Amino acid sequence: MGVSVLSVRDKRYNLGVPRLGKISWTPELIASLGKEPDKVIAQAMGISRTCVSDKRRSLGMRHTLGRRKIAWTSEFIARLGTEPDEAIAHDMGVSVVSVRGKRLSIGERLRKYTRVTWTDESIARLGKEPDTSIARSMGISGQAVGVKRHELGIPKYSGVGLTPREK
Questions:
Q1: Buried b (16+ CB within 10 A) or exposed e, 22-38
Q2: Which of 87, 29, 74 minimizes the C-alpha distance to 55?
Q3: pLDDT of 101-111, one tens digit each?
Q4: Does the model's pTM come out above 0.85?
Q5: Is 63 exposed, middle or buried, given 0-12, 13-18 or 19+ CB atoms closer than 10 A?
């Protein structure tokens, strides 16, 4: 119908239409809360993830699954504060929020970075490669590359017409 679940729930409530079937929380299902991701339990039961997380919270259980443990090597820790959080996050395959959180937890302040010098070679790459690829090689954020590309009126890289090797 193209409307949110909340809209449907509100409409059902306003019309006095009861929910289809009562959720039967067996001891086995309750035991799986907090041990299995809410999404997995919800799919198995054919209910929304919100129903599962609401039940878990009503029982005072915390949700710790779904988050993977990040392997903070000494190399990545040494980069904190010396490079943009975005570049580290990209290289680690984690969120920028995770990197920022780690940096702050060890008391590392975000240092100011030196101004980027755009060479003719780096400008020539704009629009011909993904912004993230250029950013990584220059040690700057993808956003900074996008801003420069936009300033110069260069369209974003699309990858169309290139061989797989060129991509």
A1: eeeeeeebeebbbebbb
A2: 29
A3: 898 888 887 76
A4: no
A5: middle
Residue 164 lies in a domain: yes
Work out how many domains the chain is built from and give that number: 3
**Residue 98 is encoded by which pair of tokens?**
């995770």
The type of residue at 100 is R
Residues in the chain, total = 167
**Do 96 and 118 belong together in one domain?**
no
Range(s) of the domain holding residue 143? 114-167
71-85 per-position pLDDT tens digit: 899 999 988 888 888
Rounded-to-integer distance, Cα 148 and Cα 154, Å:
9
Could you give the 3-state DSSP secondary structure of residue 33?
strand
Measure the CA–CA gap between 107 and 130, rounded to whole angstroms: 33
